[in-house]
Specification:
- With 272 residues, this protein is α/β, with parallel strands linked by helices.
- It folds into 2 domains: 232 residues, 3-Layer(aba) Sandwich (Rossmann fold), CATH 3.40.50; 39 residues, no CATH class.
- Helices cover 32% and strands 32% of the residues.
- The protein is built from 9 helices and 12 strands.
- The protein has a 6-stranded mixed beta sheet, sandwiched between helices. Strands 2-1-4-5 form a 4-stranded antiparallel beta sheet, with helices on one face.
- Helix 4 packs across helix 5.
- It is globular, with a radius of gyration of 19 Å.
- The N and C termini lie far apart (43 Å).
- GO terms for molecular function: ATP binding; ATP hydrolysis activity.
- It comes from Desulfobacula phenolica.
């Protein structure tokens, strides 16, 4: 069942065209990995999906509904968002920030109830971050801040999560914690994930874990659906798109079977 679809999408800032003729659809339980260089329009595309920007041409559907016909609350009940960076202005506790993820389900004058608090505590515990519960949000490290944003999205309990470079500020261990959590939630809840990332190995990681994944390359105002990671992330395609020579390695891991990983070798002459 298609849960998110974009048809003939076009968007510009003034006379500057950001993308045009973008088409894709994502089914329940499927992940779309959008790969592209800085400045290619990934974040702008995400803003259109979230209803923040309005397409100049084309349409975006959530299930059977046009995004333009939904209220912000209705969109927030269907899509959670993890930004690339979150500016911290106010000294809320981590728990307060997490409970904001329950806002689409509470009325204007009501407060989160015991069930909402339990959901937040369960997520903290599952990520091994319960010790952050009462910490001042403005005093967290960059990596801790990103983890809180991811937890807030999980607490929002939507069928779709959109992530803009979700591991950009995370250390080696917490990057893996986030990816493991994504895999578990996609499998357990049938979540649909749209993830913009600079790291094509993320797509391989999800595929290695048995998640249905589509890869899309975004560059020069276009989004090119390229198929599964195994089909799309070939050495030739990576060299053409990134101008980087790579080697695709296949390993046998006990308990996981065959897994694939991209090893960067060297950058290529961009003038060729």
């Amino acid at each position: 069942m298609t849960i998110l679809a974009l048809k003939n999408g076009k968007f510009s800032f003034g006379k500057t065209q950001i993308f045009t003729e973008v088409n894709f659809s994502v089914s329940k339980g499927e992940t779309l990995c959008i790969l592209g260089p800085n400045g290619c329009g990934k974040t702008t595309l995400i803003d259109c999906i979230l209803g923040i920007n309005t397409l100049h041409k084309g349409e975006i559907r959530l299930g059977d509904n046009l995004v333009t016909g939904l209220s912000p609350r209705q969109i927030a009940q269907m899509i959670a968002y993890v930004p690339q960076k979150h500016v911290r202005h106010f000294s809320f506790s981590v728990m307060d920030i997490l409970l904001m993820g329950r806002a689409p389900y509470t009325s204007f004058y009501s407060a989160p109830d015991a069930a909402d608090i339990e959901i937040a505590e369960d997520i903290l515990d599952s990520l091994g971050l319960y010790h952050l519960k009462n910490r001042d949000y403005t005093r967290l490290s960059g990596g801790e801040t990103q983890l809180v944003m991811i937890m807030r999205a999980l607490i929002q309990d939507t069928p779709v999560i959109v992530m803009d470079e979700p591991t950009a500020h995370l250390d080696f261990k917490h990057e893996l914690i986030v990816l493991e959590t994504i895999v578990r939630l996609v499998k357990e809840r049938g979540l649909t994930l749209v993830m913009a990332t600079h790291f094509p190995n993320h797509a391989f990681y999800l595929e290695n874990e048995g998640i249905p994944v589509q890869v899309a390359f975004m560059d020069r105002q276009k989004v090119h659906l390229a198929g599964s990671p195994s089909a799309a992330l070939t050495e030739d395609n990576l060299e053409s798109f990134y101008r980087v020579k790579t080697s695709i390695m296949t390993h046998t891991i006990p308990g996981k079977g065959l897994v694939k990983q991209i090893i960067p070798i060297q950058t290529m002459d961009t003038d060729k």
